[in-house]
């Protein structure tokens, strides 16, 4: 599976998280999917409109970011699970021969307690390696 460089940035009222990593990627009829690990967490990101972001580890969730409809999410931790409604306020996706970019502003509604979030994902489509580490 080929690899490339990715950057995932999330922002919320609780703070900002930036993850730069080398990701494995695949291309299917549904688009590109990127898989990477950092600091004990594994992420799968399928950018686009709609988009899907999955996190596995101590904190687990699947976010379906669809500007056309409200979706459900469950955020699980060692302390329990929280259900939320996901409402996309704004989303943008752009891909060319060099770079893929996805940006989304969304809200998580925990039974009336609403938290604003943003996520930005960038993949460098010019830096690719094979699983053996050879640069393409």
Estimate what percentage of residues fall within beta strands. over 45%
Q: What integer value in Å does the Rg equal?
A: 15 Å
Class from secondary-structure proportions: mainly beta
Question: What is the end-to-end distance?
Answer: 12 Å
Number of strands: 10
Give, in order, the helices and strands: EEEEEEEEEE
Sheet with most strands: strand arrangement: 6-5-4-3-2-1-10-9-8-7
pLDDT < 50 runs, ≥5 residues: none
| Discrete helix count | 0
The description of the largest β-sheet is:
10 strands, antiparallel
Per-chain topology:
Blueprint: E1 3-12, E2 15-28, E3 31-38, E4 41-46, E5 51-56, E6 61-65, E7 71-77, E8 80-95, E9 99-110, E10 113-129
Salient structural properties:
10 strands; ten-stranded antiparallel beta sheet; mainly beta; 136 residues; 0% helix; globular
Brief overview, please?
Helices cover 0% and strands 74% of the residues. The protein is mainly beta and 136 residues long.
Can you characterise this structure?
- With about 140 residues, this protein is an all-beta fold.
- Helices cover about 0% and strands about 75% of the residues.
- The chain has strands at about 5-10, 15-30, 30-40, 40-45, 50-55, 60-65, 70-75, 80-95, 100-110, 115-130.
- A ten-stranded antiparallel beta sheet has the order 6-5-4-3-2-1-10-9-8-7, with no helix packed on it.
- Strand 9 (about 100-110) and strand 10 form a beta hairpin.
- It is globular.
- The model has no long low-confidence stretch (mean pLDDT about 90).
């Amino acid at each position: 599976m080929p690899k490339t460089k990715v950057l995932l940035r999330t922002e919320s009222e609780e703070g900002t998280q930036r993850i730069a990593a080398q990701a494995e990627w695949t291309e299917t009829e549904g688009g590109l999917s990127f898989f990477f690990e950092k600091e004990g967490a594994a992420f799968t990101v399928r950018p686009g409109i709609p988009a899907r972001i999955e996190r596995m580890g101590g904190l687990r969730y699947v976010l379906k970011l669809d500007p056309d409809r409200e979706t459900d999410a469950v955020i699980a931790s060692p302390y329990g699970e929280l259900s939320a409604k996901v409402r996309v306020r704004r989303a943008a996706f752009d891909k060319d021969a060099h770079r893929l970019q996805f940006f989304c502003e969304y809200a998580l509604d925990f039974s009336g307690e609403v938290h604003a979030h943003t996520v930005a994902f960038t993949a460098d489509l010019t830096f690719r390696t094979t699983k053996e580490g050879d640069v393409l």
